[in-house]
Amino acid sequence: DTAVSQTPKYLVTQMGNDKSIKCEQNLGHDTMYWYKQDSKKFLKIMFSYNNKELIINETVPNRFSPKSPDKAHLNLHINSLELGDSAVYFCASSSTGAGANVLTFGAGSRLTVL
Amino acid sequence: GQQLNQSPQSMFIQEGEDVSMNCTSSSIFNTWLWYKQDPGEGPVLLIALYKAGELTSNGRLTAQFGITRKDSFLNISASIPSDVGIYFCAGQTSDSWGKLQFGAGTQVVVTP
User: Fold this and answer.
1) Could you list the mean pLDDT of each consecutive 10-residue stretch along chain B, which spans 112 residues?
2) Do A106 and B99 count as a contact with CB atoms less than 8 A apart?
3) I want to staple B86 with a disulfide (CB 3.0 to 4.6 A). Which of A51, B81, B95, B105 is the partner?
């Protein structure tokens, strides 16, 4: 019944590895996002997709590649992981209808790079 | 870039006390949102504000969209232990659809 679900919740890996985080929403929303929360709890947008089309791409290293196979799914693949990639990554979704700015967040995926 | 200043950074209060926090922006916003984040969870929406001057309540929570459209506050009345968490303001300008900016958060600790 979870509205926005992301997996895995925890991910511990070595520098240089490639990893993916998956996200799915069952709210019928047409826009999905990835946010990064650093150790100081600051939330910053990374990417946004609307109906599978990339609409927001903030200044993120190209090692990060989002992919939206359909409007209910948005995955994040990270190549050549670095220590600074350690953070909590949140998936979120919203609708372009009424209340378009209101994001519903997943529970987060904590990535630790050793 | 645009800046959202949220204060205070943290608050240590006793159960039953009222809590007040606010956010200011360097830009005019058309939306202000307040979220709460519990440990190990994602932010959860508390209140959404869409019009300047709008005052909205959600139980013991009250938030207002400032008249200048550059600020918002959140009040929590009669705090209880489960109010512990990080409270975030978030806002959006009219020319940045979908790009919510978040404040740095206010950590609230409630002691019995």
Assistant:
1) 83 96 94 95 96 96 96 97 96 80 95 88
2) no
3) B105
Beta bridge mates, A90: A35
Measure the CA angle with vertex B1, ends A73 and A92; round to 5°. 15
The CA distances from residue A85 to A36, A80, B25, in Å, are 9, 10, 28
Choose among B31, B40, B42: nearest Cβ to A101: B31
| Residue entry with tokens 């740095």 | B104
Mention every residue, 6+ apart, whose C-beta is less than 8 A from residue A34: A23, A45, A46, A47, A48, A66, A74, A76, A89, A90, A91, A92
Taking CB atoms and an 8 Å cutoff, what residues of chain A touch B90?
Answer: 103
